[in-house]
User: What shape does this take?
Amino acid sequence: MNIHISVKNKSMTVDDCKLIELPRFLDARGNLSFIEQYNHIPFEIKRTYWIYDVPGGEARGGHAFIKNQEFIVALSGAFDVIVDDGEKKKTFNLNRSYFGLYVPEGLWREIVNFSTNSFVLEFGSEHYHKEDYIRDYNSFITFKQSEKKQRL
Ligand code: TYD
Assistant: This one.
């Protein structure tokens, strides 16, 4: 499977998020899945990070990226990714290690409802730059409004 997500003279919406099924080799010795850059992940991977040992009731995320695109996998356990484009919200429940969620840049997103022993694996298209984060929701709305005026 090759996926091409066209770039990008538009303001991204929640409908640009894609749930992508990954290959699975079912085996009596244990199952195996894999992810390939430009095949399942539509960007060059510049960063990988993971979130683990999340206490019950906690939420992660709660920000938007200006440039960074992400691919999120529930390697273990389950959680909800809530994406928000300023007009619409969508919730994706990730609960299988053979699905990944592509989240383009420019969306507010939060990760909530972590099950016990959840393990969130995230691939990013950019190195960590704190200037790439919008952490205040009202600033995000202002950003989206000006983005929509400049783009389609
Ligand atoms: P933070 O952005 O608050 O996590 P979340 O995705 O839940 O919003 O990140 C927590 C800390 O980790 C923050 O001080 C920045 C640091 N950090 C890095 O240094 N590099 C990274 O790639 C990431 C994702 C975070």
Residues 137-150 form the longest helix (14 residues).
